[in-house]
Amino acid sequence: MSNSVIKIVDLFYNPKSVAVIGASKVSMKGGNRIVNNLHSNGYKGQIYPVNPNYNEEDELCGFKFKRSVLDIEGEVDLAIFYVNNRIVTNILKDCVKKGIKAAIIQSAGFEEVGVEGLKLRDEIAAITENFSKLHIIGPNCMGISRFDGDYDDKKGGFFTGQFTLTNYKRGNAAIITQSGFLNGGIAPLIFRQYPNLGFRYIVSIGNKMDLGENEFLEYILKDDTVNVIAIYLESFKDPKKFISLCRKAKQLPKKTIILVKGGKTSQGMKAASSHTGALVEDERLIDAIIKQAGVIQANNFFEMFQFLRTFSMMYKSGKKFPRKGNIALVVGSGGMGTIMGDIAMKYGLKFPEFSENSYNILKSVFPNWMPPNRFALVDSWPTMEKAMMDAAKKAKSTAKKSTKKNAINEKERNPFRMMGSFGNVMDVIQRAVLEEPNIEGLFISMPGGPRGRESTMDFMTPMLKRIAKYPKPVFFYSMMESEGSLEMLRLCGKYNIPLFTRTEDIAKNFAILVQETKNKERFSKTS
Amino acid sequence: MSNSVIKIVDLFYNPKSVAVIGASKVSMKGGNRIVNNLHSNGYKGQIYPVNPNYNEEDELCGFKFKRSVLDIEGEVDLAIFYVNNRIVTNILKDCVKKGIKAAIIQSAGFEEVGVEGLKLRDEIAAITENFSKLHIIGPNCMGISRFDGDYDDKKGGFFTGQFTLTNYKRGNAAIITQSGFLNGGIAPLIFRQYPNLGFRYIVSIGNKMDLGENEFLEYILKDDTVNVIAIYLESFKDPKKFISLCRKAKQLPKKTIILVKGGKTSQGMKAASSHTGALVEDERLIDAIIKQAGVIQANNFFEMFQFLRTFSMMYKSGKKFPRKGNIALVVGSGGMGTIMGDIAMKYGLKFPEFSENSYNILKSVFPNWMPPNRFALVDSWPTMEKAMMDAAKKAKSTAKKSTKKNAINEKERNPFRMMGSFGNVMDVIQRAVLEEPNIEGLFISMPGGPRGRESTMDFMTPMLKRIAKYPKPVFFYSMMESEGSLEMLRLCGKYNIPLFTRTEDIAKNFAILVQETKNKERFSKTS
Predict the structure, then answer these.
(1) Is A265 within 8 Å of B346 when comparing Cβ atoms?
(2) Which of A31, A304, B357, B393 has a C-alpha 20 to 30 A away from that of B264?
């Protein structure tokens, strides 16, 4: 059976020819963009634009229009529908007649609109003889994507969505979703926000009249290049199968599944039912499924993308996942440290005590009037003041020896110099923490947040290179969303170091690593 | 007593002359920057830089150095300390001798470092005869700020912190804080992040050896230009007084207090104690204080600034605060709508049913194959598709009449055109919702997030102008932090419309308005 699932999904992912029903020369229309998305990203097979309003001389991306799938001479493996819901059934009959085995129905207006939509569903089931003659993704979906290469160098992939994808990157993440948005409008924003987060698959399953989350999960789990799979569901199609697949994933090396379940409350369910026609599910049942499946739960799309990024980076850079939740924090503000203390505790994390050795190393960079804490919350503010004082003293003694007082004064004002001496202090602190055996990871809060200045970048790059070498996860925190923090986010990304702009986020994202370690232990024991 | 508190605080806020102990010509040092911060922002009084390492010919910002406060000929109202903790007490004796009535001690290394620090505290109490001769802010603080004008036009204020403030804006917000960071490194970032959020006061109270949150709260409550006060505390100095002041605020028009309490957990307390020497407080006691005070609680600094911004904007634009939590959502993704449904419910918000009238207006912009919901969750995606189809049809019929087919094709590709027709649709939807009596506010989710393109801005500005006129709060949501969303955030800010990048945030920020309405009702009844 498992083999047959792979074969079925391959009908969609490896077609030799594709008919785009509703293709159009009008660039605003989805049918136009689907053809473009396939063609411009290097789909090698035959594309047939199908639309009865065009003639056989008309072309799109160099492919001649056909008025009906029945007019196509060669074989067609996959049909993509982007037409009004009312004409779907008639064209589907033609597809079956033509011997087409797979269709992605992107049109909306089925189960989610009530009685009329349910009638359409029944007609489709009858036409396809319960999907035995022709398998369906959708309806009410936004297509499937597979990323074969990066956009820049080895551009390529198989993209059936109506949003033309550019600037993507192939990587170890995948998404299976009941919200087309995740393969649509938001995808380009994610690629830009996290340019180092690469994807292998994004599948919009819509109302999942035939194929659903389980078939794609099974398919994706076979791909060794995928480490983390995020799934957005408004209902479970076959909860038992879902649980068993998720548990199976726990036995595989380097696989994590993240789940966002929409429609847990009565208001959410009402919304889900008008969105994908999802049936009401009991909240306790949902929670039981999540617990039994041992997946990481995210509460919204933002969190989902953040978790994807965290796992993607940790797997990619071969980090050792934490088990005890022992974390160290280096922060430039005591108030922020206090709040982080509360938040860390809320997420089950602990700041352990330093060993005598680490404590003594730390003490060397602190001023006498303010020694460091004995526990792993390092308020670096006094070290910064000390570094500044030391730099000023040094400058003064140099100035005394020199006669060119003004020249020295200018040099002394140079922020690089100050940054440099503070950089050394940070080096000492970070080393002490990362080499302390009892600490599993490090949070670094940028004092005041990065300003996006060149000097900050010059200061950051060697630091990132240095700490990226340790097998312990290091997370950065920079308060506020700003142009500077976005620049910093991308710079950190290059070293697989995630940057967060919220205190809750940084704790939560470390806690899910601990949770995943425990999940893996739990399921390896019970299996 | 109240009058005397105002007089005491005025010693700090309206001094005719200020001595800066530890002033320095070295720009890296805090004592240098304090003089600069006072001078460059237009402090009109006399400034005396004090440092025994300089001679009387030495100058800073045009003010001659003094080797001791006792060398100053004129009267000194306020002394600001930026020197090593060990020399504070000796200089403080001189201050008392000189008849100085107020000192801000920014030096750290007191209660928070244990036994040695406690000894220093006792000495200070003895020297000042329990603060009767000289009042103290701090120690371990980062100064106080009062904003008299905007940075651009009527630049001016009274700033004693060691971070030179620029680009600030006077406004209806204030902060009282035990984290100096909020008057330090983070302030410039906040000014840049929320350029339309203006402040009147920021007060860093540090260890609050003498003056604390209550004195400043009382002082600030007297200022009619302040509507919202955020307070960050690691301990309560006099909880009873605090509760009574907060309750008093509830009787005043347009006043809201936001509280962040750091050190609620054992880890947070440990951190707080090493930060400001705060004593351990029972979590249940803290919760009881918050409840009795009727304040809005924030969990971290980010949330605090976001809440500040929300209340500041709502008061500034005279919005009607919601009471029932009846909200409408316009969203371009059904999945996002489903998640918003769950999150809204979590925060006690409801999407009410539309009246027949509003429903019919909405229906007119939806396609037949996908009518709108009966409840106030408007998935605008189908209206966008309809608008695009209509625009395409129109373009086609124009093209038929014309012979210049290619020219029309180009015109039809113009995104402005498409945006324009979708803009009309959004207008219809927003009007219908904002004029529905049962709806108290509107969330608008930008489909796919703003891209920061000129066309988006052109599209946004008339929309913002239109909806800003309604007395109901309108909140924008745009997923992802991006350069585009930051631009949009600032644009929305001009119209007092807050933009959020997280689904949880938008719901939470509306829920605090409902909570504040209820708080005001509760305390007007019980008083």
Answers:
(1) yes
(2) A304
% of chain A residues with pLDDT over 90: 67
Q: pLDDT tens for residues B117-146? A: 899 999 999 999 999 999 999 999 999 999
Average pLDDT over residues A362-383: 90
Please report, as a single letter, which amino acid is at residue B416: F
Q: Residue B333 and residue B380: Cα distance in Å, rounded?
A: 8
Separation of alpha carbons B133 and A493, rounded Å:
56
SS3 label, residue A312: helix
Binary contact (A388, B263; C-beta < 8 A):
no
Q: Which of B109, B301, B392 sits opposite A26 (nearest CB)?
A: B392
Q: What distance lies between CA B478 and its chain's CA centroid? A: 20
Query: Are the CB atoms for A226 and A196 separated by under 8 Å?
Result: no
Token pair in block for residue A197 = 């987060």
Nearest-CB residue to B26 (from A86, A179, A392): A392
Determine contact: A505 vs chain B, CB below 8 A: no
Beta bridge partners of A144: A203
Alpha-carbon span A223 to B215, nearest angstrom: 64
Q: Which of residues 421-440 of A touch B (CB under 8 A)?
A: none
Amino acid, single-letter form, for residue B245: L
Give the C-alpha separation, A417 to A415, whole Å: 5
Low-confidence ranges of chain B (pLDDT < 50): 1, 403-417, 448-450, 452, 527
Q: Does A398 touch chain B (CB under 8 A)?
A: no
Of B185, B338, B396, the CB nearest to A275: B338
Cβ burial of A338 (10 Å; 0-12, 13-18, 19+) is buried
ipTM: 0.88
HEC profile of A460-506: HHHHHHHHHCCCCCEEEECCCCCHHHHHHHHHHHHCCCCEECCHHHH
Query: Which of these ranges, A32-36, A415-419, B261-265, has the smallest mean pLDDT?
Result: A415-419
Cis peptide before B352 (omega within 30 of 0): no
pTM: 0.91
Q: What is the pLDDT of residues A444-498, one digit of tens each?
A: 987 544 454 555 677 788 899 999 999 999 999 987 666 677 788 888 999 999 9
- A479 closest CB neighbour out of B302, B418, B449: B302
**Which of B22, B19, B15, B39 minimizes the C-alpha distance to B98?**
B19
B312: nearest Cα among B213, B189, B169: B169
Pairing of strands A256-261, A228-233: parallel
Could you tell me if A86 lies within 8 Å of chain B, comparing CB atoms? yes
Q: Give phi and psi for B146, each to the nearest 5.
A: -130, 130
CB A438 within 8 A of CB A468: no
Q: Quote the DSSP letter at residue B62.
A: T
How far is Cα B91 from Cα B134, in angstroms, rounded to an integer?
Answer: 13
Beta-sheet pairing, A474-477 with A441-445: parallel
Distance CA A233, CA B354 (A): 27
Contact between A295 and A259 under an 8 Å Cβ cutoff? The reply is yes
